[in-house]
Structures are given as structure tokens and as C-alpha cells.
Amino acid sequence: MKRIIALILVSITASLIIGLLSLSSYLAKWAVKETFLEQQLTLQDNFQLSYDPFISELTISDAALMYQNSEELVSFKSLIVNFDLLPLFSKTLLINKFEFSGLNLSVDQQADQALMIGGWSIANLDSKSDNKSTPGESNENIEAKETESDQPAEKSEPFINQVQIGSIVFKDLNVNAKVVKQEHDIAIESLTIEKLDLQLGELYQPTALSFLFDTSLQYKLEDVDSTLSLSTNLFLETAPDIIFDKNDIANLQFQTESLLLKLQQTNVKSGVQDIALSFKAWQTNLTDVNASTDGGVKSDLLLNSFIEGLNVSTIGSEHKMFTFEKLALNNVASDINMTGAVLEYDVAFSDIQLVDSQAMPNKEETLPALLDLESLSITNGSFTNQLSSIEKIEIGSLVTNVVVNKDKSIANLVLPKPTVDKEKAVTNQENSQKNSKQVTEVAHNKANQKSANKAVLAATDLPSEALPEQTTLNDDTSTSKKMDIKLVELVNAGPFKLNTLDLSVEPNFRSLIEVKKFRLADIDSTQPQLVTTFDLAATNNTYAKINISNQSQLFIEQPTHTIKVLLDEMDLASLSPYVSSALGYHINTGQLDSEVNAKVIGNKIDGEADLLMRSVDLTAISNQGEESGFSGGAISFNYALSMLKDGDGNVDLNVPFDGDLNNPSVGFTGFLSLIVQRATMSAAKDYLINTFVPYANVVNFALSASKHVLKLRFNDLALTAKKSELTETETERLSQLSLVLKKHDTTSIKVCPIGVVADLTTSAEQIESQDVVTQKSITATQVQELMDLNQARAEKIKAYLVNEGNVESKRVLGCSPTIDYKKGAEPRVSFNAT
Question: What pLDDT was estimated at residue 697?
Fold first, then answer.
């Protein structure tokens, strides 16, 4: 009989469970319909809900909340919760698995409006006051209930003191949120939390938390006002251990062995700022992280981070401004303490690497990149409150190209054009003026306080130490502890090529400075007596040489600098566009050799300069005063320069200088004394004739205008029209010329290219019809074409004489190109002996 009763009970229980399982979906639909009847919310027809008591698993699938049975507000594909009921007896909530996937949610909230989900408003959930009394209930009962509710709750032992979750998995979640004028799109591909362990104390306050976290998501942002947009793919992995203070949950200790953050295919645009930024990947890996918030933030960690494929460009012109292939920050150890009044930090890194960086790359334009840097390496850096130190900065091959337009703007520099909000600009200006006024008032009050303090001392005949200690707050002379700096070495690992093209001057200025050696070493404020050294070796336009060296003591009471500058074969004609207005002369040709030695102590400078100017030839911008050497008791610059020339046409000067760097002055006693020293010349007629007769096809002679010196002249070299390449006939003449110069090594020449109208790209029909340009009709573009061709010819001729003829480069001088407009004139190069 007992067995029969047991079977009946089991059968009834099983039937009830099966019945509940089969009716659960319908019951859920009925419950939602009854609860949200007034809001017209229902669940879609294919909604499924089931519970398996044997494995304690709840499953919901194909859930969608509908508005008026037609509009879908929110939906998800499945929700699976698997839990264990037995641990509840030991006050532990154990969830083995929580999986949620396929969420689709769209919300919208405008200013001063309720949140909208689809076409349904959250405001529909507002109901009558919770304090609404039950019919027939007396006011005394209501007041008694309210009084009881105001009593503080007594602390009781929580029913659950531990929550354990094996895994929480979110997949394929899509949320679109429009808040005021911002639109957020979040697409979570996967978000996983594993081995979650939450310890709870009194009133279910957390005391400890640990879990494994891993997520992959896509995020997009659109801001209408600032026309800001952001899109990125985010990956995050970490496994933290968090311990909470029992008395204050805000005080916690955070620890994790690793935190990996990745951002991929990231794009940021700001229409207001006219800037777009993108990068392929940004990865940051934090290890051995320890942080606490007890009395302030305190943390220490190790970090490795890199960014790949960064591009910064303008939005309007779509012009790239800055790019680099990779920036890596390696082995960073950080210790930060914000618990005191002053931030304390100790940050060190092994190296920072920047690879393939460009500014204004202009890859699709005709202009060259403004800057192209192969690599930059910073090794062994350390930064604390007391010292900033770097062991070595190494700069790889560097190329800069500066193109200056006629209006002095830089042609290959494109900057963003931000949109200015006039109302905000006015507001910012008013705030700035207000702040400036407040600062002035504070400074005035401090000055008055100082005056009052001094008056008190004078009246009471007390020493300054007698004032209260707090008066030092009004003293601006109080300074914080200074930070020391240290740099062991800054050096180049490859050449620096600095190209300049200036179209704003006539003739156009071209320069190529190549820095072959650059080194700055031993900067250390902790060792004031340490000597800091600087060395630079460079060339200008291939042949001119620049060497600069300096030894300094930067941190002694009176800083000292010992400077030496050497210049060799500096072409003066190329500098003519910049100095002609100041001199009043064009420099047609000339070279400068110089040695400058200077000593700087504090602001005082003392030194001397040895200058050797070879074959300087000037043309006055205005001929006024040039017919006579003297005008009004003054000596013209050109006439004084001619008095200083020696027999070879060179000017050798020794110029001492001294003064205050704040108010510099230079003494020219050496210059004046040399005017007297260069009063005689020696004739060399017999020597020149006997020497150069074997090369009569190449050279001839002519007396100077003063008939004091017999001038050696070289015959012009005829060139092929429109061509810069040398022909066989031309190279044969240059070979003879090089033999003359090699045999007589005291002779130098000026290479002066002369272009003609026939060099222009003019058709044969135009030439026959005499429809050709003249000096009056020629355009600036045509002039520049002739100048470029002439310059190319001069460079090839000098290169041939130096490389093939073995003539010293310093003996072959450059000359400003000219144009011969005479009919039938032929292109040629004039060689002038110096």
C-alpha cells in the first residue's frame, strides 16, 4: 500500500512539473500581457521559455517585446542560466553558466524628453504614487506604516555571503542609443567573464571580487554639434583581484597579473577642428598591476605599448599632415603616489622607438614631404619628482624639404582650418578678460600686503623674522624645489638632409645642407662642473663645409661656452637674395672661408673671426655714388672692399668682437687696419704670358680698366640650346681647361652660365614668324625656366672639372645665371679667372 501511495505522489509531482514546463511559455506571455496591458506591450508568438529541474537550467529563446503587436522594441535570441541549488544551504549562490546572445536594442532620448525604446516611451511606466492608500485604510494606519519605514534597518546576517559564477557569456549584442545630439552604436561580438567569485559582508556589501574578463566589441560615435565621429574595434583581457574595505567600499585594493587592451581600425574625426585621426592598431599590455584608493590613488605597474599605422589629416582638403609606421614604448615601470599633498611619481622605460615618420608626406602631390624621419630611438629614460634623465636619443636619417611661396608661406605645409563659433569665441574672450582682471587684483593685493608688512616692521623696529610665518604665503619669492635634468647623449644615426627652395626672392634660392655628424653630450644639472660638448659637421650644396664645436658649463653660477665655427667654400652668390637689400649690392660671385672663436661667460662674449673672401664681385643695386670711391667723406662698401683685395682678388680679415649678448657690439679695428695694409699690387705680365701661351685656344689676356693688372681671361664655352647635358666637344674643352688649372694651382675661375631665348621650349613656327619672347614680353615662368637650365649647366660643368679634371672644388666658383636677349645669341658659359 505504501509503495502505491509513493508511486501516486511521484506521478502527481512529475505531472505537475511536466505541466508547468509545457505551460511556462504561455504563463510568461500571460504575465507580461497582464502586467503591461495598459502600455500595450506583449511578447511575440514564437517566444519560448523552459526550465529543466534535473539540471537546474532556465532557457529563454526568441524573445521579443512588441508594442501594439507590431513594433519590436527589444529582442534577444537566447538566454541560458544554469545554477546549482544545493550550495544555497551553505549561503553560496552558484551559477554554473549564464549565456545571453542576439540582443537588439534601440533607444532615443532628446533634450527634456523621456527615453524612447522604438516608438514606446518609458514615461508610460509612471503610475500613481506608491503611497496610495488601500480603500478603507485609516490615516492612522498609513502614518504608522510610514513611521515604521523611517526606522533604521537592523543589521542582520545575510542569506548569501558568496556568489560564484562559472562563466558569463554575452554574444552578438547590438545597442543603438541616440542621446540628445549624440548617436552611439555598440556591437559586442563577445564578452566573457569566467570564474567570478564575489564575497559579501553585512548588508550584502562586497568584500572581495575576482574574475577573468575577455571582450571584443565595436563602437561608433556620432556627435552632431561638434561633428565628431569615432569608430573602433576594442579587445580587452584581464584577471583582477579586488579587495574592498569593510568600512568604506570606495577604498579598495586592485591587483592583476595582466591587463591587455587592443584598439584596431580606429578612426576619429572632428569637423569643428578639421582633423581626422586613424590608426591600424594600438596595443597596451599592463603586467603586475597593484593599485589602491585608501586616502588617495597609489599604483605601480609594468607597461608595454605600441601604435601602428597612424595617420593625421585634414577633413576639408583631405591632406595628410603626419604619419608614422610604428611608435613603441617598451618596458615601462611606473610607481605613482597621490595620497599626499604632492603627486609623487617614479617612471622609467627601456626605450621608445619611432619608425618611418613623415610630416606633410604629400605622396600624391608634386611637392616633396616636409619631413621624413627614418627612425627615432630614446633609451633608458627615468622621471621622478627630483630628476628627469635620458641616457641616449638617437635620430636616424632625416630629410626636410621647405618650399617657400612668393607670399612667404610654406607651400608644402597644410594646416587644418577649424570652424569658429562666434558666440563661444566672444564668451571665451570675456572669460579671459575676467580671469586676467582677477589675476591683476590678486597681484595688487599681494603687493599691498608686502607694503603693509614693511610698514609694520618700520613702525615697530622689528626684524623681518618677527612677522607671522603665514605671511610668507604672500611672498612671490617662495619657490618649489627645482627638478634636475640629465641627458647623456643626443646623436644622429644617419645623415640629415635639409632642402630649401625659396620662391619669394629673385633669383630663387636653393640650398641643400647635409649634416653628417651631430652630437650633444653630457648635460647634467647634478654635476655643474661637467663639460657639455656639442659637435656638428655638415656640407652646403655639396662643396661648402660647416663645422661647429662647443664646450659649455651650463649649470655653474656664470655659464660658460667655448665656441668654434669653421666655414669652407661657402658660396656667397647663393646668399645674395637675402643680403642684397642690406648691403645695397648684389653678390655676383664669391666664396667665404671663416674661422670664428668665441668665449661666452654669462652674457658677455669675446672672440675673433678670421674671414677669407675669395673673388668677391658685387653689383650695386643703385649706381649712385659708385663713380667715385668717396662720397661725402664716406667710403662706399664696394670701393672699401676693392681696397682690401690682395693680388689674387681675395679679402683676408681678422675681426675681433666683444660685447653683451643682451646688447651686442662688435669692434672693427681689424677691418680698418687692413685698408692700409692692402695698398700695393705686383704686376705679373711676363709670368702670365710665359705660362699660358701653350693653351692659347683656351685662354686670352686683357688689361684691367685701371691698367695696373693684366687680367687672364678664358674663352667662353658654347653650349647646345635647350640641353644641360655636356657633349663630347664640350667635355674636350673642359679637359683642356682642367689641365690649365691643374698646372697653375693658384688660379681660380668663376663659372657664369648665360642662357638665351632659344633655350625656351618654343616651336619652330614661332621662331620663323619672329613670334618669340623679348626682354619686355618674357614671363616670370619663362625666366625661371632659363634660370633652372643655366643652373643645371653650371652644376654639371663644375662636377666635371672636380670629378673628371681633378680640380679642387674651392677653385671653381659659382656665378649667378644671366640671360642674353640679343637676336642670334647662343647659350654659353663664361669663365672668369680670379
Answer: 52
Instruction: State what percent of residues in the chain have pLDDT above 70.
Output: 72
Query: Residue 617 and residue 459: Cα distance in Å, rounded?
Result: 75
- Phi, psi torsion values for 200, nearest 5 degrees: -120, 145
Could you tell me which residues come within 8 angstroms of residue 207 by beta carbon, excluding any fewer than 6 positions away? Answer: 199, 200, 201, 243, 244, 246
DSSP label of 247? S
Q: Which of 62-66, 212-216, 246-250, 540-544 has the weakest average pLDDT?
A: 246-250
pLDDT tens-digit map of 147-184: 555 555 555 566 788 999 999 999 999 999 888 888 89
Give the residue-averaged pLDDT of 728-740: 86
Burial label for 618, CB within 10 Å (0-12, 13-18, 19+), is: buried
Please answer whether residues 228 and 210 qualify as being in contact, where contact means their C-beta atoms are separated by less than 8 angstroms: no
Q: Which pLDDT tens digit goes with each residue over 418-476?
A: 876 655 555 666 666 666 666 666 666 656 665 655 554 455 555 544 445 444 444 44
Which 8-state DSSP code applies to residue 824? Answer: T
Q: How many residues can be counted in the chain?
A: 834
CA distance 766 to 763: 5
pLDDT in tens, 67-91: 877 788 889 999 999 988 888 888 8
Cα four-point dihedral sign 352, 356, 361, 367? positive
Alpha helix (H) ranges present in 137-274?
139-150
**Facing residues of 164 across strands?**
94, 197
- Residue 469, φ and ψ in degrees, nearest 5: -65, -30
The closest alpha carbon to 502, from 403, 400, 367, belongs to 403
The model's pLDDT over 762-782, given as tens digits with 9 standing for 90+, comes to: 544 444 444 567 777 888 888
Query: What's the rounded Cα separation, in Å, for the pair 60 and 49?
Result: 4
| Number of Cβ atoms within 10 Å of the Cβ of 194 | 14
User: Which stretch of DSSP H or E encloses residue 27?
Assistant: helix 2-35
Instruction: Give the whole-angstrom CA distance, residue 536 versus residue 549.
Output: 6
Question: What whole-number distance in Å separates Cα of residue 360 and Cα of residue 322?
Answer: 6
- Identify whether the C-beta of residue 564 lies closer than 8 Å to the C-beta of residue 608: no
The answer to whether the CB of 237 falls within 8 A of the CB of 217 is no
Cα atoms in the Cβ-side hemisphere of radius 13 Å centred on 94: 12
Please answer whether residues 751 and 813 qualify as being in contact, where contact means their C-beta atoms are separated by less than 8 angstroms.
yes
Q: Who's near 662: CB < 8 A, 6+ residues apart? A: 603
Q: Among 378, 341, 372, which Cα is nearest to 359's?
A: 372
Nearest alpha carbon to residue 714 among 748, 754, 683: 748
Q: Is the previous residue joined to 694 through a cis bond, with omega within 30 degrees of 0?
A: no
Identity (one letter) of the amino acid at 766?
Q
DSSP strand pairing (57-67 vs 104-109): unpaired
Q: Angle 728-743/780-803 helices, nearest 10 degrees?
A: 60
Q: Where are the beta strands (DSSP E) in 338-410?
A: 344-359, 371-384, 387-395, 398-404
Reading the block at residue 642, the C-alpha cell is 676693392
Confidence band for 286, pLDDT divided at 50, 70 and 90: very high
Is 698:740 a contact under the CB 8 Å cutoff?
yes
Find the range with the poorest average confidence among 113-117, 129-133, 268-272.
129-133
> Cα 235 to chain center, whole Å?
26
Question: What's the Cα-to-Cα distance from 576 to each of 58, 101, 573, 594, 619, rounded to whole Å?
Answer: 89, 76, 5, 18, 11
Closest CA to 592 of 613, 617, 616: 613
Q: How confident is the model at residue 304 (pLDDT cuts 50, 70, 90)?
A: very high
Give the C-alpha separation, 566 to 402, whole Å. Answer: 25
CB burial of residue 203 (10 Å; 0-12, 13-18, 19+): exposed
Structure-block grid coordinates of residue 36: 503591461
* For range 627-646, the mean pLDDT: 54
Please give the backbone phi and psi of residue 151, each rounded to the nearest 5 degrees, phi first.
Answer: -70, 140
